[in-house]
């Protein structure tokens, strides 16, 4: 990081000069230096603006803590509170003591542990197959580029325009009676993993990233005798860690969130993930234990988010950039 | 384009040759443009296929084939026991005659409309405010994104507890602090749908905020400088620089939100199951009922027919939308 360059944003400077400095300015902004938004330095010195910005801070902070953190804090509290207290005094902090046993009951008696493992299994497989498909297809379509690549590319992109609802029933019937193999995929994780891997958005992201990699490196490797697989494995993949991180986050989150599809193809409770199991056990579970189960189920995604915050947020922003 | 033309003229010759003969391989140097299976192999054709195979299999079986099949199935009667029978437009006629369809369409429009009113402007305002603060931007982004990280099923089940209609319910207690009488939330047909929308907005706003924040960073600061040269104040900078610069992403987010909310399932299914009195029955819930909650066995034909109608409607809507916004953009 170079030292931040001072902003020369004075209203008196002519527009022409500013446009001339555009390239330089962009670089400064990238270095974390002279970025500015709607408000100029001049604006920020005005009294009214300063008071309003203080107000904005208060509104943002209070609003976001209440809306973003509030429900989770309440859930954490309610997870260790007896049912009666939660029902009659939802905002009092443990009027009748803390009930740690809720967590244990949820973990052991509702078998949250087992559904947790199922969820991890669902997410891990979806992650693996999504990465496998996205990288191999992205490599073939972007780097190897056979003559028919544009047609395939078009066919993949076309699926982006088909709303998910169209797939629901025919995909379910395909899982019941898959072609070639003569056995139903129902109640197997293949039924979740493979449809998740048919994700055009991933291929689009990865292909775009591969398109931006320098071709000279591939050429150099080929002259040194590296075959297509070696170029893929030892050059393209190591250069693509950022995008693989983004696709990984998308894949794991989507698998963790999915409800309708696992509900349909995993009717056997023994293999169901948390998202499917939680609504099913609700009616036979006492509220405090149920809230403890909800809290446990939320913990892993929250911890993952806090650890990989930058990756999550840049990934979400990137999603928008691709949509735009 | 010219290379494709050559391919086409070559194709019959190739098909006639069948197996690659040694003579054919020997002839290739003299007819350089001719492609035989052997030259294809040498050019890395097998590698191409090897890398494409996983995608071709997975997309073929789990994407392209089901999409094609949905069109076929909507004209068939399928019950998984006997062979499918062609029934022409019967499925469509039966769906259109279903008295629940009107309710579902109206409810879905209501949900989408409310979600637009609540959920579309809020993230834009939040993102603009957040992009202007100097300190705490990271903290604010993280806080705003937290609800997106909560698994949607957990969020709905948790909000179901919040919506407890007794005076001691979580939201009713809060309302009590400011002197508003307890609300029935999910229990009354009038308040059920708005309750669903509030939760859906809470769950989705963070994602949109992050996307808008990324778009706001990309607005060239020179434009603001130039606007100031022309004497623009803060509001005029927002109106004449910020919003026009965000126009592309705003248009996209709007249509994506409409497409998403038109297929809402999780909230009505888990909160209310379509009730009370079908007040939250949405189109997707109706499709689900046709296919998977039918005591007479899955009405797969009707379900795919309705899915297809929804998809075609959304396709037409997007097409019209892009036509219109295109015209606005050029003006």
UniProtKB/TrEMBL annotation, chain A:
The keyword Transcription regulation does not apply. One of its GO terms (cellular component) is plasma membrane. Keywords: Cell membrane, Membrane, Transmembrane, Transmembrane helix, Transport. Pfam families: BPD_transp_1. The chain crosses the membrane at residues 54-76, 120-144, 151-172, 192-210, 231-256, 289-308. One of its GO terms (biological process) is transmembrane transport. Residues 116-308 form the ABC transmembrane type-1 domain. It is a multi-pass membrane protein. It is found in: Cell membrane. Belongs to the binding-protein-dependent transport system permease family. This is ABC transporter permease. It comes from Agromyces mediolanus.
TrEMBL record, chain B:
One of its GO terms (biological process) is transmembrane transport. It comes from the Bacteria. It is found in: Cell membrane. Keywords: Cell membrane, Membrane, Transmembrane, Transmembrane helix, Transport. It is a multi-pass membrane protein. Residues 1-32 are annotated as: Disordered. PROSITE patterns: ABC_TM1. InterPro entries: ABC_transporter_permease, MetI-like, MetI-like_sf. The chain crosses the membrane at residues 40-65, 109-130, 142-162, 200-219, 246-265, 271-291, 303-322. The keyword tRNA processing does not apply. One of its GO terms (cellular component) is plasma membrane. Residues 105-321 form the ABC transmembrane type-1 domain. Belongs to the binding-protein-dependent transport system permease family. This is Sugar ABC transporter permease.
């Amino acid at each position: 990081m170079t030292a931040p360059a001072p902003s020369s944003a004075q209203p008196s400077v002519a527009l022409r000069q500013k446009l001339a400095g555009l390239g330089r300015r962009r670089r400064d902004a990238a270095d974390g230096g002279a970025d500015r938004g709607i408000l100029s330095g001049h604006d920020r010195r005005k009294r009214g603006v300063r008071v309003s910005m203080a107000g904005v801070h208060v509104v943002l902070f209070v609003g976001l803590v209440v809306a973003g953190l509030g429900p989770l804090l309440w859930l954490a509290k309610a997870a260790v509170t007896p049912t009666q207290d939660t029902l009659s005094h939802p905002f009092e902090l443990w009027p009748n003591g803390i009930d740690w046993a809720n967590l244990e009951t949820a973990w052991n008696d509702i078998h949250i542990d087992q559904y947790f493992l199922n969820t991890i299994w669902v997410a891990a497989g979806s992650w693996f197959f999504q990465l496998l498909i996205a990288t191999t297809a992205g490599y073939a379509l972007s780097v190897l580029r056979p003559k028919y690549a544009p047609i395939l590319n078009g066919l993949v992109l076309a699926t982006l325009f088909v709303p998910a609802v169209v797939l629901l029933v025919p995909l379910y019937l395909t899982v019941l009676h898959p072609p070639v193999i003569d056995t139903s995929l129902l109640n197997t994780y293949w039924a979740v993993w493979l449809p998740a891997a048919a994700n055009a958005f991933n291929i689009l992201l990865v292909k775009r990233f591969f398109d931006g990699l320098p071709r000279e490196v591939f050429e150099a490797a080929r002259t040194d005798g590296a075959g297509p697989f070696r170029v893929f494995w030892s050059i393209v993949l190591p250069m693509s860690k950022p995008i693989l991180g983004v696709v990984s986050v998308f894949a794991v989150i989507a698998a963790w969130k999915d409800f309708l599809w696992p509900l349909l193809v995993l009717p056997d409770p023994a293999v169901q993930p948390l998202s499917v199991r939680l609504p099913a056990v609700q009616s036979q579970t006492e509220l405090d234990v149920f809230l403890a189960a909800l809290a446990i189920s939320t913990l892993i995604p929250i911890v993952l988010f806090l650890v990989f915050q930058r990756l999550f947020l840049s990934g979400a922003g990137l999603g928008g950039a691709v949509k735009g | 384009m010219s290379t494709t033309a050559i391919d086409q003229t070559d194709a019959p010759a190739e098909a006639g040759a069948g197996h690659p003969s040694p003579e054919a391989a020997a002839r290739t140097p003299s007819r350089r443009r001719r492609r035989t299976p052997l030259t294809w192999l040498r050019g890395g054709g097998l590698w191409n296929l090897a890398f494409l195979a996983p995608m071709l299999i997975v997309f073929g079986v789990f994407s392209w084939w089901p999409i094609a099949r949905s069109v076929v199935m909507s004209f068939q009667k399928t019950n998984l026991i006997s062979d499918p029978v062609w029934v022409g437009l019967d499925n469509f006629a039966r769906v259109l005659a279903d008295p629940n369809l009107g309710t579902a369409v109206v409810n879905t429009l209501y949900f989408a409309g409310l979600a637009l009113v609540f959920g579309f402007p809020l993230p834009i305002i939040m993102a603009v405010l957040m992009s202007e603060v100097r300190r705490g931007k990271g903290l604010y982004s993280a806080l705003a994104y937290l609800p997106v990280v909560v698994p949607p099923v957990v969020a709905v089940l948790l909000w179901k507890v919040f919506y407890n209609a007794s005076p001691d319910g979580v939201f009713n207690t809060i309302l009590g602090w400011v002197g508003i009488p307890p609300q029935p939330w999910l229990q009354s047909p009038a308040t059920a749908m708005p309750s669903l929308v509030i939760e859906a907005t809470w769950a989705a706003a963070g994602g949109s905020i992050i996307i808008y924040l990324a778009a706001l960073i990309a607005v060239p600061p020179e434009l603001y400088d130039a606007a100031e040269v022309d004497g623009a104040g803060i509001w005029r900078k927002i109106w004449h620089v910020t919003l026009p610069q965000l126009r592309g992403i705003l248009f996209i987010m709007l249509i994506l939100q409409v497409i998403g909310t038109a297929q809402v399932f999780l909230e009505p299914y888990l909160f209310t199951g379509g009730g009370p009195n079908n007040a939250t029955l949405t189109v997707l819930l109706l499709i689900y009922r046709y296919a998977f909650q039918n005591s007479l066995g899955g009405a797969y034909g009707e379900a795919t027919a309705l899915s297809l109608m929804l998809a075609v409607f959304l396709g037409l809507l997007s097409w019209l939308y892009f036509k219109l916004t295109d015209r606005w953009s050029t003006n």
